[in-house]
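=== Per-residue structure ===
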Amino acid sequence: MEAITALGDPVRRRVYDYVVAQDHEVGRAEAADAAGIQRTLAAFHLDRLADAGLLDVVFRRPPGRSGPGAGRPAKLYRRSAADHVVSLPPRDYGTPAALLAEVVESLGAESDLERVARRHGRTAGESAEGGVEEVLARQGYEPYRTDGAAGVVRMRNCPFHAVAREFPPLVCGMNLALVEGLLEGMGETELRARMRARPGECCVEITSKNNDD
C-alpha cells in the first residue's frame, strides 16, 4: 500500500515513469530535467520512491573518473527488481499459476500451451484498438524502440515475470506464441515476433520480417 500511495503524487509519478523507462541508471539532475522540476525536488521524490521500494539506489562514479580526487560516487536510481501487487481482499494468483506450469512441464504439454496461447493472442488482436506498441503497453509489456535498429520493438517488462523465474523455457515459449498470435490477429503481416532474451527485459521482441539482425 505504501508503494501504491507513493505514486499518488502526479509529479512523483512523472519522475517514476521517466526512471523506469530508461535503459540506464538515472541521476537526480537528469530526473529533474525530464520532469521539469528543481533538482532538490527531484531528489526528494526519488528518495521517496526508493523508500517505498519502487526504485533501487546505486552509487557510481561517472565513467572515466576514478582514484583520488574523483569525488564521491553519484547517487543513481533504477527500476526496483521487486514486484508490487495490491488486491482487496487478498488474492494469490501466483501459486496456482506456478502449479499449473509445473503440471504442463510434467506432462510435456508445452506445445498444447503454445497453441492455446497463440489462439488467445489472435483473438485479442482481432479486437484490439491502436498500434502494436499501444496494444502491448496496455498488456503491461512496456514496449520501446531501439536506437539504430529500425523496426525493432523490445519490451522492458514481462507481465509473467513471477512464473517465468521458475519456469523460463515454458513461460517464454508461451509468451512468444501469445505475441505471435496477437500480431496475426491484428493483421500485422510485415512484423514477426522472435525470441531474444535480454537481462531484466521480456524474452520476446518484434521486428520487421526483412530484418535478419
Notes: DSSP finds nine helices and seven strands in the chain. The chain has a mean pLDDT of 88. The two ends are 43 Å apart (CA to CA). The CA atoms of residues 16 and 139 lie 19 Å apart.
